Structures are given as C-alpha cells and as structure tokens.
Amino acid sequence: MTLPWAVVLLSGGLDSCVTAAMARKEFQPAFLHLNYGQRTALRELKSFHDIADFYGVTNRLVVSMEYLAAIGGSSLTDARIPVSQANLTARTIPTSYVPFRNANMLSVAVSWAEVIGAHAVFIGAVEEDSSGYPDCRKEFYDAFNTVITKGTKPSTHVRVVTPVIGMAKRDIVSTGIELGAPLHLTWSCYQREDTACGVCDSCALRLRAFSQAGVEDAIPYAVRPKYE
Amino acid sequence: MTLPWAVVLLSGGLDSCVTAAMARKEFQPAFLHLNYGQRTALRELKSFHDIADFYGVTNRLVVSMEYLAAIGGSSLTDARIPVSQANLTARTIPTSYVPFRNANMLSVAVSWAEVIGAHAVFIGAVEEDSSGYPDCRKEFYDAFNTVITKGTKPSTHVRVVTPVIGMAKRDIVSTGIELGAPLHLTWSCYQREDTACGVCDSCALRLRAFSQAGVEDAIPYAVRPKYE
User: Fold this and answer.
1) For the whole prediction, is pTM greater than 0.90?
2) A73-93, pLDDT tens digit by residue?
3) ipTM of this model?
4) Domain total for chain A?
5) Residue A103 is nearest to which of B102, B134, B147, comparing CB atoms?
6) Is residue A56 part of a domain?
7) Which of A177, B179, B183, B210 could be joined to B217 by an S-S link, Cβ 3.0–4.6 Å?
8) A-proximal residues of B, 126-185, CB under 8 Å
9) Main-chain dihedrals φ then ψ at residue A28, nearest 5 degrees
C-alpha cells in the first residue's frame, strides 16, 4: 500500500524533527526547508539535509524567504536587534518573533502540497513552550485550515497537522527517542553555528527539556547551564 | 491630520492600480510588489514603479517569491504549460492559476504591515471576473482576516481590504477614470511584454471591460479583438 504524501516543514530543530518522525507513520514525507535570513541559517540547512539523509527522503525543497529579513522587525533576522536572553517565565513576546512568519511558511507549504497532491502539511509548532509567539497557537492553525479550504481548488484536500502543538518539550524529546528520531542531528540555537550558545531562549528550552526527560543532549554547547 | 499607513499590493495591473487609487483616499500607501517568476515579471515591475512615481509613493518594497515558479503547477510560471486562450464563459479553473498564490502574497504583506504599523492591507482581487481562481473569493479573505487576528501580536490591528472584489471589471475601469488613476501605466497581459497579446484571458477581460465602460484602452496591443 502506498502512503499518501505529506509536506513536512523541517527547520532542522528538535520539534520539526520529531514532527517528521511522527508524520512518517502515516505519510510519505516531502521535506520543505525555509531560509528566512535568520542568523543560523547555514547551520539549520545542514541539519535539514542531515535529517533528510538519515530518513532517505529525496523529495526535498529549499526555499529562500529572505524578504522576511528585509522586512525586519525580529532579532532573528535583524543584527541590530539583540537576541533576548532566556527568560522562561516571561509572558511577553520575545524579540526573536518574526512577524507572521508561520503564515508565510504555511503558504509556501500549501502551494507545494497542492502541486504534488499531498494530503497534509506537518508543522512542529509548540504552543506552551514557544515563548508566546502568536502564530504558534492551535487557534491560528484552525483558522489557517479554513483559509486552505477556501483558497485552494475543490479537488485539493490539504490540512495542516500540528502533532506536537499541545506537548511539553520534555515529551517531545521522549517521543523523539521512542521513535528513533535523529535528535543528535538537530540544531536549536538562535545565536551560534559552531557550538550552541546555551543561553538564548531556544537553547534554554532545549536544555531544560532534555534535563526533564532525563536524557543527555548529544550536541555541543559553549556553556551548558542547568535549567530546571 | 496624518493618515494611517496601509500596505497596497500593486502588481502593476488594472485592478491593483484602481485599488491603490481607492486606498489613497483614507490611507498613506506603502506599495508592495511581488515577483513570482511569472512570464511578464519585468514588464509588471516597470508598471509598479511607473504607478508609484505617478503617485509619489517612496515607501516601496519589491519581494522575490520566485519559489512559486520552482514549485510550478501554473502556466504563468511554468513555460511547459500553455497559457489558456480566453474563454470568458468557462467555469473551470484556468491553467494560469498559481496554487495558493494570494495566501503567499497576503502573508508577506501582513508581515510588512505588522513591522511598519500599518492598519490595512489592500489587494485588488476581483471575484466575478477573475476566471474562477479559488483565492479571489470574498470568503477566502474573510477567513484570512481571522488568521491575521490569531497570528499577529495583540497590539497589531491589520485587516485585509478588497475594495474591488464585488465590482464588475467595467466598473473598475470607470472608477479608475473617476479617481484619475493612471490606467495607461498598467499592464495586464500574461503572455507578452512589448505589446499586449490581446488574446490571453487577462487581455480579453481587460479589453471587454474598457469596451463596456466606453473608454479607449491606451496601451498597445498586437491584435485587438472585439470582446462583448
């Protein structure tokens, strides 16, 4: 039996890697990577190809959305805005928020999905742990699914699937380990490409998740603070 | 009194030019042009700058979305798919449909709008005359406005405005003339860049609209059939 196709947004980070592992259970994955001029773009692209090689996925598409850097407004893409230091209890939107980024990404994914006849688009958004980005919430994806229904051909049936959206990051790590996902090939740091900085929001969330899951994180860190 | 900002999607065609003329009544326009590898991209870009010069708009952004050509699936961007000849009574989706194009465009526009603090995004979509593209219908834009509300910061208030969506194309022409819009600087042909072909869907709709409005179209045509 041939599985239906799904486009999987694979940034090269932890959440999207585990999402890909979950998508593979029911779909043939086509991997989509979006470069939006973020500081660590090259390192993330390496992780994308490493994970795709690991899974033997040849249907890959890498798209440049560097206009998001031109538009600016985020510390991820604008070198003049400092990256927020980790503050895991803050309820404000961090400076790394890229305005409406996930809608841009989903739009590309749905265009590709419509052309290749895929039935789903997988995205590894996480509501609880994603530092309060407005476009990481379930209600955003529900609304986007309505847009897809209204804005594609009647013969197209693509839905956005967010399998890790309600999970705590420690459970994402555990699920990844269970499914044999190549977490050692992923990259999360927003600030460095050689060794992870250990102190940006993204490193802090990752290190805390591995610690809570009781698993050693195999990637190298410049400093490795203990986050509880 | 300073008018609020609006991002206006300006392709260089008739509908977006009239939309810009309408937006100027209530907003300071920032003009956004998207190049998605369509056959007539250079000619459309010229029209964009000509119209922006005409209105003295300096806040311009030109974004390359050439990945839509890489994704393919449309005669507008894939030279292997022939452009449909005009068939103004057909109810099928023409080969020039670019999968989910308008969602990609709106996403870029909303990202820019959020960064510059604009209150609106104007797009010249036309439901009736737009050859049955699924992403030209009012219900698509209504759904997209919900996505914007869910996916942007609480302090952001951007709405998509589609002032010509319910208009017949002849009324768009008449409105453009009334508002002094530079229709002579616009470009609609999907096929040629020197003189308009006169026979593609887009030329046919344009020529019929000018004819019905009782106005002479000032741009050059290779052939100028009579469409009723």
Assistant:
1) no
2) 655 555 555 555 554 454 455
3) 0.85
4) 1
5) B147
6) yes
7) B210
8) 134-135, 137, 139-140, 143-144, 146-154, 156
9) -85, 115
